[in-house]
Amino acid sequence: MQWLWLGLILTTTSWALTSPFASSVEGITIGNTHEVTAGIYRGSQPGKKLSQLAEYGVEEVIIFKSQTKNEVDEELAELKNLGIKSHHIPFRWKDLESVQVACEQTVKALQILRKAHKASRSLFFHCTVGEDRTGLLAGLWRMEQENLSTEEAWQSEMCERGYADGNIKKPWVVTKSIHQELTPLFLALAQKIAAGEQLTMKTCLNLVVNKVKKNCQ
Predict the structure, then answer these.
(1) What does pTM read for this prediction?
(2) pLDDT tens for residues 19-74?
(3) What is the pLDDT of residue 217?
(4) Three-state DSSP state, 105
(5) Which residues is 41 bridged to in the sheet?
(6) What is the pLDDT of residue 16?
(7) Which of 18, 73, 126, 128 is the most exposed place for a label (fewest CB within 10 A)?
């Protein structure tokens, strides 16, 4: 049993380092980087490739993840050096503090996206691997901006870019947690957008999140 758990830990750790999805944006080699809407980009944690964003002309970055070591602090410092405006929203991929907090963090990110979009400022957002938390935010953003249906956002912006079991290399323990916590949150917020509501902090006060079973595979 010890060897089984050791193998599981090593597999999970290895997966967490990178995404198998390549960038589709010429000039940026950060994993899983794609243009979501005009001037708005998503991707993996840039790491040592952060300077590529400055060279590409990105003006703002949303770090949509909680800090595990000191990687967020390091990125914030480097973004400051590069002259890129930064926003850190400590959104978790599991063990959410509460539905309301997770909802409010998502709305905050959307508000930043709206402001950047309105001002025609180029923005890049990411979590760690750029698949789950990033996918949730990208899916909601496209629903809001392009009137995509929930299913269209789920398939084209989330599953196809590695959300949960959309990445077949992702350990099942990770996929299970994603579907238990992030998927119900996405579907609850997507339902609001589909009904014509713009997500605000008030949306989060009485948000009902139901257990669902929805897979990519």
Answers:
(1) 0.93
(2) 999 999 999 999 999 999 999 999 999 999 999 999 999 999 999 999 999 999 99
(3) 73
(4) helix
(5) 35, 124
(6) 56
(7) 73
3-state helix, strand, coil in the chain (%, to 5): 50, 10, 40
What pLDDT shows up at residue 38?
98
Phi, psi of 37 (to 5 degrees): -135, 175
> Helices (DSSP H) in 58-132: which residue ranges?
71-82, 99-118
* Segments in the chain forming alpha helices (H): 2-16, 51-56, 71-82, 99-118, 133-146, 150-152, 172-194
Q: Determine the longest span between alpha carbons in the chain, in angstroms.
A: 55
CB atoms within 10 A of CB 154: 23
Amino acid at 171: P
What distance in Å separates the CA atoms of residue 91 and residue 127, rounded to the nearest whole number?
Answer: 8
- How buried is 130 (Cβ within 10 angstroms: 0-12 exposed, 13-18 middle, 19+ buried)? buried
DSSP E strands in 45-190: the ranges are 60-63, 85-88, 123-126
Nearest to 170 by CA among 7, 22, 29, 18: 18
pLDDT value at 14 more than 80: no
Q: Is 56 helix (H, G, I), strand (E, B) or coil?
A: helix
